[in-house]
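User: Hello, can you help with two protein structures?

Assistant: Certainly.
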Amino acid sequence: MKSYRRGWTLRRRVSVLLTVVVVLLLGLAAAEAALAAKTRQNMDAVLVKTGPLRVQGQELLNALLDQETAIRGYAVSGDQADLGPYESGIQQERDTVGKMNELIRDYPDIERELRAVEQQAADWRRTVAEPVITTTGRDGTAAGQALITDQSRRQFDQVRASVGDLQAEILTERERTAAKVYQSSNILVVLLIVAAVVVAVAGTVLLLSLDRMVIKPLTGLALQVREVAEGDYQHHIEGSGPPEFQRLAGDVDAMRQKIARELAEVREARESIEWVNSQLQKQAEELTRSNRDLEQFAYVASHDLQEPLRKVASFCQLLQRRYAGQLDERADQYIAFAVDGAQRMQRLINDLLAFSRIGRLTSGFTEVDLNKVMGDVAGQTEAAVQYADAELTWDQMPVIRGEEPLLTNLLANLVSNSIKFRRADVAPKVHVSARLVGDEWEISCRDNGIGIEPEFADKIFVIFQRLHAKDAYPGTGIGLAIVKKIVEYHGGRIWVDTDLDEGTAIHFTLPALPEDVEAAKAAEAAEPDGEAAPAGSTESGTDPEAAEGQPAEGQPAEAEPAPVGATDGDRPDRAPEHGTTGGMKETVG
């Protein structure tokens, strides 16, 4: 590892290797490109120049032979038609020489031989062909044949020999160019082999380097990490190879140390949690025992304690009936105190039992229609409504999940409190409404009673809290404590509105059914201007105008609250605006 501390990094090594390989390959590619261009040039010379030159050299010889044959025939026959091949031969010679001149610009030796052939052909026509044509036409065939001698034939043979030399030079040039093509092809193959060797060597060096500088260090690091992963958190991780891997090993070891520290802290926390769990287990066992004792006490309170209490109350009532007026006034007063105390004790025991049973003795949640619950509440409070000349109304109420007996007890307590804590000179008016807020129903019970100061709003839900003497307003002081426990048992919360000018408004929430929430969202989305109908409209039963008997805009007339124990002309005070929270302005017992 020490040898790599100040050595080249892996990136630098790979970059240098790739740079060398790329430079070599680019050099080879440039050489191959130049060689290929030269080879293509030589191939063009073979196929486009020297090859056609050989054919044209043969055509030139044929044209000269046609001329010599035509002259011989004309000298024998004297027929002017026999000179046709001579004329066409001359024209063919000129055409062929013109084509050859376009191809021999890069071949001076061939051009020299071609000029020699042209010169000799011209000399032969001047010294032999033209005199034969002239003499034969003027003096006859015998004179013309006399001009065709061995010397004229040797002169034409020299022309033919010059054409042969031209063809030989063309063939020599063609073979020389073909040799160059073959040579460049061999060199190109050698360059390709060199390029392949460079790639193979570079690949081998790269593989060996990767094995030495990457695979082996990574394998060693992986083995050390695996040891740590198997539980040996104190194993020191040491890296090898290039500096990058050494830094990686250092980072992994730092992470191992951090994990080891955190595991130590977790072990300590686990030990603390286990100790706390043991204490909680003991407390749970103690709480279970206490609950059993409480249940036993509730049983005793509901049976054993009430039996002598009923006997005391019964005999006190017998004394009151039998000896009323026979004793002095103070004795009658004492007997009345005893009877009242026994009755209040019975009511107190019954309320305590009811409070303790909430959430402990359950029949399970079902879908409860609060409209039916309000009907039951109206029946239970009918006597108090008629006695106080009160008016009980409610809007359209929702359906929720809960226990119907507890919800009936909840609303009955609120309505009874609203009727009980009334003003002496005002007929009580109680209105119950509901509106959907988010995923909860907010239910309100509003009255026009005596109200309560804001500083006492937090105390009214505490058990046995009374803000008035028992002779002013009867009761045990447990009613609203029971209400709060029922609301919390159903997953809601309860509070009092302290912003009212008169009367009291108690608000509590209950979870809404999912279909009600979805229907409200769909109604909001369907509004063209983005303003959905308020949740307290006719359907949910909490619109303030509907609470006064005035249908809200766009609502049918049957959305009016249903009065109980009052005429249609006596409506409760205007319901409060919704969304207000706070304390309560009512005194409860």
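That covers the first. Now for the second protein you mentioned:
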Amino acid sequence: MKKASDLFIECLEEEGVEYIFGVPGEENLDFLDSLSRSKKIKLILTRHEQGAGFMAATYGRHTGKTGVCLATLGPGATNFVTAAAYAQLGGMPMMMITGQKPIKKSKQGRFQILDVVAMMGPITKYTHQMASSDNIPSRVREAFRLAEEEKPGAVHIELPEDIADEHTESLPLKRSHSRRPTADVKSIREAVKALENAKAPVLVIGAGANRTMTSRMLLQFIEKTGIPFLTTQLGKGVIDERHPKFLGCAALSAGDFVHRAVEASDCIVNIGHDVIEKPPFFMQPGGPTVIHVSTKTAEVDPVYFPGIEVIGDIANAIWQMKEDIVPNGGWSFDHMLAYRKAEVEHTAPLAADTRFPIFPPHLVQQVRDAMPDDGIICLDNGVYKIWFARGYTAYRPNTVLLDNALATMGAGLPSAMMSAMVYPDRKVMAICGDGGFMMNSQEMETAVRLGLNLTVLILNDSSYGMIRWKQANMGFKDWGLTYGNPDFVKYAESYGAHGHRVESAAHLKELLAHTRDTPGVHLIDCPVDYSENDQILNIDIKKLSKEL
């Protein structure tokens, strides 16, 4: 007979788990004791459950394997809610394990007891309370299966104290090997026929294409056909954005140069699209032909109702289409590529503006120049996310980690920490607003304790800048969104990190190079000038692209 908590750890080892992130509580102590004897799994103690959840989700995003996090009952479990939603909407495989009071006999009344399983129901793919130690292997295996299959997401298991302390003869289950089905030949033929009959087709690369490693097949398809492509924010980097057929990233909702290019198309191929990200076009009856290529059928929405669906492994579907298609001599892409050229010409002088406080387009260019090809930037949430999505040229998949699904503040630092752990030889930078950084800034201690090498770039405007931008755009007075900040340099140093403050555009360039090349955790306090956000993003771009 084996103790249930020991069996649970063995099941996690069988699944290939490397880390468990979390803040344990009294109700997890059996589990913690069993984990202390594991030779394969390392506990990463964080300073808040949300940080643990964001790290677990980012592990899933990078590896495709389920990231695991641990919390106690009640307040520990409620602190997981945002991270669960982040993983669920963002398509990141993650398992949450939470403790609970004994379920067979109460000893403390209702103290700290919430119905955590019911709470997790709407924001996970699977949630289950362990009521018998004999079922641990099957429930753990099922949770991992569901977390990892398309579309990946969050799962939750509650392990009550008395179940963790039971003894059982059950044994871990082996992982099953499964392959995604390939797309039906007739659907491929229909999609190819629509492309061959089109005058100006375009490819839109979304989140699903970034998850399922489609880069090679997509590049071959683009090279053979010459069809231009754009990305959603979650599709950045699938194809190197220095490619001559790249049209841009749909960072704004409408009216950007890239949207005009899409409007010029009569056949749109959406690859790995998810309605979590609003499509970068508005469908209308009698509009362009829309082809949906994904592992799952399209969720119908007022803004998304494709006419042709190709369902199966995305890379294989693109390969089949490439083999079948005969490039059409009548295709014309010049007008689409002219929009991209105009966007580049509009951005160049902005990126060269060396004012201080730092101008966002210049900041984006400086960060791109400082980061190597395989460097990873992890964005928190704020108005700078739009500047980076539009202006930061992604060279490789999963090198721009931004969250355009839940779009939560507070995830930038934990996702960068996880990136630095998964890829210790690559350069990693968290890019946070002062608001988002302060939501999980305590994880700086975790980063220092783990000996990570990363840079945290804080864009400091002493306000919730994204909402301030929207407030200005809606014609409301500037009110209710400004605050004071700590001295970020001293704050970093108090954790044992290195603090730096930008004093000019030239100094920013020096600091980005210094922090990139110097080991340890660095924080850069960078004052930013957001005064022209509304003018450029909401007025100039729309006017210039419309004139074209």
